[in-house]
Design a protein that fits this description.
284 residues, globular, alpha/beta, Arginase, Chain A, eight-stranded parallel beta sheet, 8 strands
């Protein structure tokens, strides 16, 4: 399968003191992507403003969303290949998921150590990174709200093990499917199939991985997925529904040596997102 890569080195959505490492991380990944099918999206150098809200740097998040929208419009008019967005923080994916869900028939498989399910009112930090999935579900800041929100019954969240109180409360009353980090590939595939959606977006925040296997993230959480388990789960999900897009975010290496040590794992994940797979008989 061919893919078009958009590199979006957004850092403004992160609440981590190490947020600028996300710029270095995206640059390391970009260096291993095919240049002929890779576009770097301009990200403002400054932090931006909160636009009178409780969400830090929201103006920069909005500007990046608009830039990615414009690039996607041009890219999709000339290519039918799935788009793989490479961030940066998770907020870099807003326009990609929105674009893929224009027909309201999208399943989203979200691998993340965190829920990303806060609202501006429930967020303890004010960092947009913790609100991205909830925004895509229609409950985020108005200025970055998607034109067509995701349906919660078509969202599968895997590996989230550091949930805020508001996120846990939301999940208790929501049809969003939550799977643990040790869920096997068959369970992930079954959850995707149960969404009854026609297409699939796979999002990977690298902090879903266990710190014993992968260290280059800003907010590591113990008891995460193995690289092999993540790769297998992506492959199983893609056999159930056609991939229409994907995102890979959260690479924040502390040094060039850490980046070098972690890049083989990153490239295995990129491969899982882009290599051809054979659909099962139940795929639509």
């Amino acid at each position: 399968m061919s893919a078009t890569f958009l590199v979006v080195p957004q850092w403004q959505g992160s609440g981590s003191a190490r947020a600028m490492r996300l710029v270095d991380g995206t640059d390391h990944i970009r260096g291993d992507l095919p240049s002929s099918s890779t576009t770097v999206v301009e990200v403002p150098p400054g932090a931006g403003s909160d636009l009178g809200t409780s969400v830090h740097r929201l103006s920069a998040v909005q500007r990046v969303r608009d830039e990615v929208r414009a690039v996607l419009h041009d890219t999709r008019s000339s290519s039918a290949d799935p788009v793989v967005l490479v961030g940066g923080d998770c907020g870099a994916v807003l326009a990609g998921v929105e674009h893929a869900n224009r027909g309201d028939d999208l399943a989203v498989l979200w691998f993340d150590a965190h829920g990303d399910l806060n609202t501006p009112d429930s967020s303890p930090s004010g960092a947009f990174n913790g609100m991205v999935l909830r925004t895509l579900l229609g409950d985020g800041p108005d200025v970055v709200a998607p034109s067509v929100p995701l349906r919660p019954e078509r969202v599968v969240l895997v590996g989230a093990r550091a949930l805020d109180e508001g996120e846990s409360a939301y999940l208790d009353g929501s049809p969003v499917r939550l799977l643990p980090a040790d869920a096997d590939a068959a369970a992930v595939a079954a959850a995707v199939t149960a969404t009854d959606a026609g297409g699939l977006w796979v999002h990977v925040d690298l902090d879903v991985l266990d710190p014993a296997e992968f260290t280059g993230v800003g907010e590591p959480e113990p008891f995460g997925m193995t690289v092999a388990g993540l790769v297998d789960a992506i492959g199983a999900a893609r056999r159930e529904r056609p991939l229409v897009g994907a995102s890979l975010t959260g690479f924040a290496p502390a040094s060039a040596q850490v980046a070098s040590d972690d890049m083989p794992a990153v490239l295995r994940i990129v491969g899982a997102l882009t290599r051809p797979v054979a659909s099962t008989s139940g795929a639509r």
